[in-house]
Amino acid sequence: MSWLENNSIKLRAIELSDIEILYKLENDSSLWKVSNTLAPFSKYILQKYIENSSRDIFDLKELRLVIDLVGNNSAKAIGLIDIFDFDPFHKRAGLGIIIDSEFRNNNYASIALELVINYSFKYLNLNQLYCNISEDNLPSIKLFQKLGFEITGIKKNWLCYNNQYKNELFLQLMNNM
Residues 118-176: pLDDT tens digits? Predict the structure, then answer.
């Protein structure tokens, strides 16, 4: 097995055939506050994004991977995981993950994050990973803390939803591998 797979999950590069899952997740307005999205994406724009996603992480400073649920010689795309703000000089990067709602609460996010953490620390040789989570997103906070991330900062009134301000938590995981 490779760095990015185990018996149930495989993380892989995004393909043009992933346009439907990308379209579904990027245009789910209930997720926009998490991704800071302000408007829907067309399939045309998403296709152009996919076509340009083959560039190297050292060039783009990000890597978007599709989370495939594997089994019985088939795979189904169930989400996306992003390494962003990749900084090879300071050896750090941010993480973000989204799982399609019908596949949540099955431990798939934990498995995918474990794979990408291992990849980031052992293969990319990063010193730390971080994420930013709204203080009211308790499932995400719990998920990242379960994997060893610690809350190391609070950005006061950082996020504005419906003219109400929310704090955003800054979580970090140091490489102890």
Answer: 999 999 999 999 999 999 999 999 999 999 999 999 999 998 888 999 999 999 999 98
Indicate the average pLDDT of the chain: 88
Burial pattern 51-75, b for ≥16 Cβ within 10 A else e, equals eeeeeeeeeeebbbbbbbbeeeeee
List the chain domain ranges: 9-127
Q: Is the pLDDT of residue 54 over 90?
A: no
Q: Domain 9-127 - what CATH class?
A: alpha beta
**Nearest-5° angle of CA 21, CA 107, CA 150?**
105
Q: What is the model's pTM? A: 0.88
What are phi and psi for residue 102, nearest 5 degrees? -70, -10
Please tell me the distance from the alpha carbon of residue 70 to that of residue 160, in angstroms, as a whole number.
38
Give the count of alpha carbons within 13 A of 86, CB side only.
17
